[in-house]
């Protein structure tokens, strides 16, 4: 059954992707299927996301890392237990958000924007996720004291911040 | 008139380091905004400064309640890249450690529910029953939280006849206590009054947001990794997936209790049918260049690890995602429309793990 679903997914992906791509699939000893896809046109990620949505799938997580002078994103998407890993290289440090298509990508996109400073186009709520506004984006990899990295630094500082915000709203 | 109130680490309603901005109209929550990041520690970056064996220790310390699943999923990724085949015995032992953790973790969350609804005798009763699991952990693995059961190519512990007998005896002690407590959680009027119809997550929202674990299963969504993408010995020890349709706090409570029962069954089955063989390979493996993605079902839901290596001693990139990370946004669906006094109960019902989420 999984094999048939895999064939359908692959056929649909091939049908929708406009640019060049590399595609392979693997099966482990327990019969779990993973599809590995590399896209050469970064815009194609929107088409892939649409395929996932049409099959009732979800975004599990997106891994970002730096390779030489550019960033690479690996999208991990799931359709009923089949994992689809999609690699996209970002030479202009910009990527289209798939959150409007797959809500489940919301946080992970905000996180790579924050940690790696990757520009995100079309995200409905591109607010900071973990780090304080005073810290520059793309911080992962730089040394920073824990007290500074944490939003509140200490409970009393956090409390003072919230209190001042509250009073600001009232006036 | 609307009122804005903050709930967070400085407020009596919530012990967790998260800040909720709540808009109220009367007693009803209209809108909720969540701010996190208080305990972000940059562990993901740290993992890339440590070698493959040091990372066993580091991943175990991401969080205490899922502390077995982190190294478990991590070693599976390393093994996949290195092409290591783990023995059947080791796979069974991995399942034993994992299910013991699941029982203890679920029971902790459920006792917190009793605490938050002010049913303190029930909380004590649940925690006392849970002590049996803590005793098992301490006796077998030497620790009450971090069990350090997994290593690359197998497990670090073995079970002899005496230990198996001890675990079985303690589970026989636990089960009748669990049955008694379950009855209270399922039927007592105080519990029902505070949980039925509270914090509803409809099935379509659960699917849309990609929630996992008991949060998903409480809304009738089955994405249990043990069944959807089996690993270790789960393909042999057939897991019965527990599903509830209600989508409210009560449904999630029921899922967890029924899973406790199912895990007791799994532990019994695994230790009584333990295959013979080595528990770990003799030789330390070389980890070549490659990439792998592995998943496991932590007590809170799906945990996924992505590992990329380049042939050196340390990972080139390691990224993981914990269940709470996905369940968080569902709170925006669950909380509005409920009473202010229910916020902490709803929040607890996703079994939040903030240290995992922020890493």
UniProtKB/TrEMBL annotation, chain A:
Cited Gene3D superfamilies: NADH:ubiquinone oxidoreductase, 30kDa subunit (3.30.460.80)
Residue span(s) of domain NADH:ubiquinone oxidoreductase 30kDa subunit: 41-151
Lineage per the UniProt record: Bacteria, Pseudomonadati, Campylobacterota, Epsilonproteobacteria, Nautiliales
Taxonomy, superkingdom: Bacteria
InterPro entries, per the entry: NADH_quin_OxRdtase_su_C/D-like (IPR037232), NADH_UbQ_OxRdtase_30kDa_su (IPR001268)
One Pfam family in the UniProt entry: Complex1_30kDa
Entry protein name: NADH:ubiquinone oxidoreductase 30kDa subunit domain-containing protein
GO terms for MF: NADH dehydrogenase (ubiquinone) activity
